[in-house]
Amino acid sequence: MSKRGKRKGRNSKGGRQSLRGVKYSNAKRRAGQPKRRPNKQHRQRPVSSGASTRSAPSGTARSGTAEFASRISLLETKERAIQSRVNLDSIESDLNHIDGAFLDIPLKISEVNKRGFVFTRDMDEALALAEDEWLSGLENELDRELSSGVSKVAAASNALDRVMLQLSKPNQFIVDKAESELDQLDNLIRSTEQAIRGRYSAIKATIDEIYGDLNEANWGIDLLNDSEISLRGSESIVQVAEAEWEIDGEDEGPDGYLYLTDQRLLFEQKEEVAEKKFMFITTKSTEIQKLLVDTELRHIGTIEQSEEKRRRLQWGSDEILSMTITGQADLSRLRFHLKNQQAEDWKETMQFVLSGEIQEDRFDFDPESAGAEFVFPTTCPNCMAAVPPIPGGVSVYECEFCGTTIQAQKG
Length: 411
What we know:
This protein is of the alpha+beta class. The chain has 3 domains: 4-225, no CATH class; 237-360, Roll (PH-domain like), CATH 2.30.29; 372-411, no CATH class. Helices cover 43% and strands 20% of the residues. It has helices at residues 13-32, 66-83, 89-115, 121-165, 172-225, 343-354; strands at residues 237-245, 255-261, 264-278, 281-296, 300-308, 318-325, 333-339, 374-375, 396-398, 405-407, 409-410. Helix 4 (121-165) packs antiparallel against helix 5 (172-225). The two termini are 31 Å apart.
């Protein structure tokens, strides 16, 4: 679900220690401070008189041709649109959004951890770095730049008001001047917004991505809770996608949801299937919900992704994820058409899970254990069933035969 954990060049052990200090100092500041930016009522900003406070001249008071009347009407419409932006409220809204996120996201991460999605350490780390930059002077600098920008825009807006008042007795010079002043004010607002937004765009992008990951995680958990899948005691969900299982490579197959955990790949069919039709219209249907694929990750060999355009008049390409399977007599290959997700992302995530690196993104991951090797017994101590090879980074295994929880020992 999260894309940040798959990046190359993850933090070194020393880097993690430094980041831990950043996270601690940020949490301490949050705990000792009330919620910042309470509507920013303390900021005194000059506000132009604006079109809303000036009575528009009536048509009977205007002189000139019908062309002037038409141009003036367009100018007034444009002015109302521009005046709605003179206080740079979109920038203010962004700053409030960023400021509140540093309090809101930790709570949402904790909630999603409790619901069963545990791979959120990368979100926490990304948020900590963004918050450290924000609280290390950037927030105050942006406040000053916003106030300065609003002052400049307000001055230009007031100058425009004086020109617009002269349209009660328009002539060619006044109308041309009003058009020019409107264009200048519009350009000033755009350039001011662009300059300020560029200062915080990276932080906002990080925050928006984290919110997106959290929404996706909650969506996946909701689907899992409504499925027939039972996770093992040590098993955790990683990613979910709406998908179609293309059995035997056919373009058509059962629709449902593809689940990736840190131990298995599962596909559950979940769709309405027509039972009766009349003149190509479905008159009776039934919902099928059935677990069709349950494959241990250790049985997955090669993983491939592709984009295929297989239908006439098709706008985009189908995202295809396929893999070879070993050690299972009933399956030798799996092929899925992913809906609304990229197969390349799934391939990278699966490789990340298979390598064991995914465990470093657990919210309760201990950096001191990084690099430690876990050794499992060869048989279950309860039923003596063979313990299969376990994916790297996994320290707890639930016996497939008797359900006994087996704790690995550090090698």
